[in-house]
Amino acid sequence: MKMESSTGSPVADFYRGRSVFITGSTGFMGKVLVEKLLRSCPDVSALYLLLRPRRGHDVRHRLEDMLNTPIFDEVRRSRPDALRKVVAIPGDMTFPDLGISASDRELLTDEVSVVFHSAATVKFDEALKLSIEMNMLGTQRMLQLAKQMRKLEAFVHVSTAYCNCDRSEVREVVYPTPTDPDKLVQCVEWMDADMADHMTSKILGNRPNTYTLTKAMAETSVAKEVGSLPVAIVRPSIVTAALREPLPGWVDNMNGPTGLFVGAGKGVLRTLYCHRDMVADLIPVDICINLLIAVAWKTATATRNQHGKSSGEEQQVVVYNCVSGAQNPIKWGSLQDMALIHLRRNPYSGVLWYPGGSFKESRAYHDLCSLAFHTIPAYIMDAAARLSGKKPIMVKIQQRLSKAVQCLQFFTTGEWQFSDDNVQALMGEMTPADRKVFDFDVREVDWDAYLNTYVLGIRKFVLKDDPSTFPEARAHLRKMYFVHRLSQFLTVTITWRLLLARSQVARRLWSVLVGILARAVGLVSGVARAVLPSIGSIAAPVSAH
């Protein structure tokens, strides 16, 4: 049933006069969330952002730096006063009581109606103790704070679709974890860092990393501690560059596919262990943020409409799988083919080699290609750099790239069936105006056009390549194409010559091939001598006319 509104936007109306508390606001998703709330919910009262002072910068400087990024230019131009609604709250997810002062804590408990909890360490290879501290204990501290908020109407916890990657089918429910979160915390608490690292593989079980484990544990904590809190969980899959908002192609990090595109576009990534026929579950960041904002509205209105429940009765946690594979899947093979076209059409500046390579379905073949096309060339280029007096960097780049690729292999060689029934139901409850402003319909994504936007976004926002560099970049790419083809020709020629010199079988094969080629040339010449006089006799009368 659709909610009616005087403005046609019940979602925007819901945020009118309400204050929002956001963790993880300086992250990729957090920035887009702040910008979207300021631009599309103009009557929101205040946005309180939990910020951690670091590297000698207080939270005010961090807030200024964030608001000076290009994505806030439109808000700055059209609603400059809106930026004053953004308030920094000093704190730290790893501290007791989140490190929030007594006065700020009182402000939050008195004023906040909506909480978006997205702060987390997203490093796949993060140390277990820190991952537990941030992703599990940080979430528990947030829930304790939320229980004190007098006006709270919605608490939206941002998880990941891959927290249940030990299952092939993932429905929109909170699954029990093999280990109780509290017991895991108690177990790891007395270990030092070295012992925890040594025990990590046993604790992970069949999960690939500490990130997916601790996010699953955090969900269990949310479900366990929910009580009467109005809580929802949103699980994005692989969050990628913006489709449309705040700027097409906007991205500010090298995580996930972004790093792969940079490596491939620069010519240094030429092989990846990946199953081409499996689904790459990408989700543009603006689709994810629109869903978050709508989920908070839905959570609040659903709780408000449950007249039969007393205020202290336990709530049910509603889960939303924010994924693309259920409605508009794209496979890794198609992703590779389309991305390479756009990387060659819109080249990055200073490519080191012509963009190419491919996904490998065999780990052994991938490892061989990695040695041939990544490791050996990196050492050769560093040796050349040393001889010319330059700083060698390629081996370090390849080592970092190899580490990043290895972290992704679990996801590029697996496939999961995510259901998104709750997401589709929520879309059906929204008005046409809200479905347009807070659009999270992934069926509308044209993947080929989106990947073109993605590649251009990386070029502009990550690599900082000015559009004026396109002619030079394309000219350089043409040179690299000929260098690439020349190197292929020389490699084949040298390899064959070595085989001829060392193998009698190769010499015999070469003699056979030369004989076949000679006979083919003789046959073509004989046919030509027989046919040409006939063509001449036909052509003569025509020319006479």
Automatic annotation (TrEMBL):
The yes or no answer to whether the keyword Transferase is present is no
Q: What is its main location?
A: membrane
Chain segments annotated as coiled-coil in the UniProt record: none
The UniProt catalytic activity note for this protein reads:
a long-chain fatty acyl-CoA + 2 NADPH + 2 H(+) = a long-chain primary fatty alcohol + 2 NADP(+) + CoA
Annotated membrane topology: Multi-pass membrane protein
Q: Which PANTHER family match?
A: FATTY ACYL-COA REDUCTASE CG5065-RELATED (PTHR11011:SF116), MALE STERILITY PROTEIN 2-RELATED (PTHR11011)
Name of protein: Fatty acyl-CoA reductase
